[in-house]
Amino acid sequence: MAKIGIIGAGSWGIALSALLHHNGHEIAVWSALKDEIDMLKQEHEHKSKLPGVKLADSIVFTTELSEAIDGKDVLVLAVPSPFTRETAHNMKSCVADGQIVVNVAKGIEESTMMTLSQVIEEELPQAEVAVLSGPSHAEEVGRGIPTTIVVGARTKAIAEYIQNIFMSDVFRVYTSPDVLGIELGAALKNVVALAAGIADGLGYGDNTKAALITRGITEIARLGMEMGGKFETFCGLSGIGDLIVTCASMHSRNRRAGILIGQGKTMEEAMKEVNMVVEGVFSAKAAMKLAQKYHVELPIIEQVNEVLFQGKPAAAAVKDLMIRDKKIEIAHDAQWEA
Q1: H or E segment and range at residue 176
Q2: Residue 195 phi/psi, 5° resolution?
Q3: Which of 106, 189, 230, 285 does the annotation list as catalytic?
Q4: Rounded-to-integer distance, Cα 281 and Cα 195, Å
Q5: Active-site residue flag, 209
């Protein structure tokens, strides 16, 4: 049995709390919101974020970071990406040397273009930082629906330790050394999912969705490999796997926000209606900055930025994608017949 602190009581943090408790671990859950903690103490269920998932009476709920961190074998950092740096900074005085911090949020910090693990390592240099990602909606994990995911860490020993903690008969965990690739796939798929939602909101069909997923993973891999990620990662769970589920499911807040934008709402209106942090909005600008830095073309992500931040009509963005200069899909060599 491990002692685990869950830092963040949103839908993902609560789903992982239920999973890890089911695996036999001792769980403490932290939130900065007193009303949220009071509700969890009373109801043992997050009524608004994850209704129907009942939490054991033995799980501790607290607003004190020290209570969730001190003496824990593993900390699961599950706050939305815009709050990752602030939360990690506030954790610094409590985190012990060598304490394992597993980031489960997905995003890129716009101001620095850093991945979230890089942000955490900067704020918590004493910690061992790992990431957990893949096609894993909280709504399904909380209900015990079979899910497969990947953990990335700097060392094999830490990756396998985390694998053992999370692994269950309904939650299969693979390991990988490609922390950077895992995080880039996780963050950028949210931007492509916005595009998929926009297409849905415009009334387009399966052909359009398939094109966005296929060309979207090409863009993600193009940038990710230029930055040092591994091609295999983008073909795996945190790449194409997470992209498919995020573009196809109504559990996806990014797709839902995209649908609303495609129907004519502004980005601000869509985010308000979804009523959850839409990570793709925060990663979109950072993705374009990275594209410029590494001299990589990201046409889908570029059009999403224009729709989100420049007021471009969604239908015009799709048209501009369709009438771009002609391209080849697979590079040919001199053996190709004329």
Answers
A1: strand 171-176
A2: -65, -40
A3: 189
A4: 11
A5: no
Bridge partner residues of 152 (DSSP): 131, 176
* 114 three-class SS: strand
Q: Is 251 within 8 Å of 139 (Cβ atoms)?
A: yes
Determine the pLDDT at residue 324.
80
Give the C-alpha distances (Å, rounded to integers) separating 325 from 128, 215, 299, 322, 331: 46, 15, 11, 9, 16
Q: How far apart are CA 190 and CA 68, in angstroms?
A: 29
Token pair listed for 77: 């950092």
Helices assigned H by DSSP within the chain? 11-22, 34-43, 65-69, 84-91, 116-123, 138-141, 156-166, 179-201, 206-227, 231-234, 242-248, 253-262, 267-274, 279-294, 299-310, 314-322
pLDDT at 297: 94
Q: What per-residue string of b and e applies to 125-149 under the rule 16 or more CB within 10 Å gives b?
A: eebbbbbbbbbbbbbbbbebeebeb
Residue 294 C-beta-side C-alpha neighbours within 13 Å:
19
Is the whole model's pTM more than 0.85, yes or no? yes
Helix ranges restricted to H, 171-205: 179-201
Q: What is the pLDDT of residues 240-281, one digit of tens each?
A: 999 999 999 888 899 999 999 999 999 899 988 988 778 888
Which residues of the chain, if any, have pLDDT below 70? 332-338
Say how far apart CA 145 and CA 127 lie, in whole Å: 32
The neighbouring-strand residues paired with 171 are: 147, 168
